[in-house]
Amino acid sequence: MNEKIKRYQLYNRSRKIRAIRFQPETATILFRVIPYLLHCNYPDLPGFIDHPKCPYGIQRFSPDKTFDPDLFSRYFPNSTARNHKTTTPYSSSPCIHSLKTIGSIGTIAQSAKSDCDYWVSIRRQEIGEEGLTHLLEKCRLIEQWAIEHGIEVYFFLMDIDQTRKNDFESAVGDESAGSALKLLLKDELFRSHILVAGKMLLWWLIPSGLTEEEYQKYVEDLIYKKHLNPENFVDLGYIADIPKSEIFGACLWQMNKALDSPFKSLIKFAYLEILMQHNTKSVPLFSNKIQALVTFPEYLSKEEKNLSPAAVDPYLLLARKIVDFYRKDISKTENRSEENLIRECLFLKAMEGMKTVKDDQHMKVTLQLMKRWNLLPANYKSLATLHTWQFKKQQETGKRVHAFLLATYTRLREQQSLFAEVDNTITQRDLSILGKKLFSFYENKPGKIPYLHSLSRYDIGQQELTFYFSKQRGGDIYAVYQGRPGGEDIRNEKAILIHQEKDLVQLAVWLVINGILQKKTQLHMVEHSFVTTLDDLQKLTDKLLSTFPLISFSRISAEEILSNEKTIQALAIINLHKDQVKGSKELRTDIITQNNCGEYFIQTCTTLVQLKNAMRMLLTKYYVSRWNNNLDFFIPPQPEQHYLQNMLEK
């Protein structure tokens, strides 16, 4: 037993060391500062809750050892929390049993942009509902502090007893999503976590393949024989095999999360297909393999036993398993392409960090690891310069990733029909709604602004964009080009066209919602081709950016996805081209609306009556109005501006 604990400690320490070597400052905050803030409650420290019933503190945590005085003074120079005259800021009965990261931290997939999710193991019965409310608020305040220091962190307070029974409230936050999501989340926790503070997970010491009853008996025997003290561990139960019948529900949710940066989610998505291909009705999860590599080497092959726990990287090993799956399964002609695509996406995920790391040693180590495990794509040198590629070439790669997601979805949907007789936890109604809402991203609808099938909407922003207007036989054309080409290059088709529309507002909205035009983007305009001025165009795009921040699909709640579609934000762009209004029956207005599913629509009104009818509809049907702060107006500077404003207020 002691040998298994030592192997786990070596593995956990090596994961921390990887994170520290990659980003020392970030690792200090994640592994030292944040645990300290959770462990204490003091007025001049972040996360302070001024209430006597606020629970806090981490069991088996040594604050002075983890967060030494020099480090404390560096982060909180004005705090009196450690003044010898100060009453202790620590709890006599700490409520957090275990604090773990979950996800890519300390793996090959960690990047400079990686956020950090913390799994906070508590017992609700110990702190009560009021205590839970206070602890949630404390965590929220610490999240805010971390954001101010350039790190995105999220806390998930998880009840130990509920987690052990696989009946916990998962991060997706909706019971109708099916038990598959909970099992997959638990699987991800077990195989990817780093123990930051508190108790070790008991699961590492219990062999896989046991039933619930066998697991419980095994634990009781260990305690009875005094091979372990249960007070030193947190018992979150065993990992149950996942029913095949529920994988498709998890597939829909994972695909919804993949829409922001699909290349990051591709490996998780491919993992679901591997599970579905298993030849039994219940499927063992990958956490079992990670457990064997770390604490049960007796279950490994001779070759696998040579791998030290310190060399185990759960993300890299999962990627290798997926690549092997697509290589061996040659029944589909596209599998070779999919195998290569997985390598490319893993490389791109790792490259996110490499681009910002000054020390080339991290890059060398990563490349060596990928080469050793046969995961390095043949075109890795070209992929390393992805940010310098022409826009169209970037989009070709993005289309390949989206095509993979859709093809995998289709295959999983077909296999799902084989389990129609099974009483799924996720209902057919919810499957239908999820599928409909999900494919609203891909579907064209009347008046809808389409999404680009890009690698990542967060990384596609352009430094410079040039707008060009031309009159053609089919009507006016508004086009936007990458960089700052001149009119001659555009007319000779030497410039890199990004997109074109027959309407300027539609073009501007498309650029904003797809992340191509951002606050950092410098706009240019080919002189003498536009009626609209560059200043008006800049003001328009600034208004669009402030009204419609880039949507994170992964942050849209389950409740919103399963609810009826509704408009939540609107912007009316009035008389953009500054046509004369007085004495005219016409008034051109473009109304852009955003719904709760992340879709954008544009509606054009040509008269004041049409505009007021549209505003009345937004108010009565969706409660969208100026008074509710979800309807705004943009009127470019013009001679009749005050006249227009008065018309709207009548």
Task: Characterise this structure.
- It is globular, with a radius of gyration of 28 Å.
- Helices cover 45% and strands 13% of the residues.
- Among the domains are: 1-240, no CATH class; 446-546, no CATH class; 551-650, no CATH class.
- The relative contact order is 0.07.
- It is built from 24 helices and 16 strands.
- It has helices at 2-22, 24-39, 63-66, 69-75, 124-148, 160-164, 179-192, 212-224, 247-258, 262-277, 287-295, 302-305, 314-328, 335-354, 360-372, 380-383, 391-416, 428-438, 487-491, 504-513, 534-547, 558-562, 608-622, 641-649, and strands at residues 98-102, 116-122, 153-159, 194-198, 200-201, 233-234, 242-243, 282-283, 464-472, 475-482, 497-501, 522-525, 567-574, 589-595, 600-605, 631-634.
- It has 650 residues and is an alpha/beta fold.
- The longest helix is centred in the middle third of the chain and has 26 residues, at 391-416.
- This is Class I adenylate cyclase.
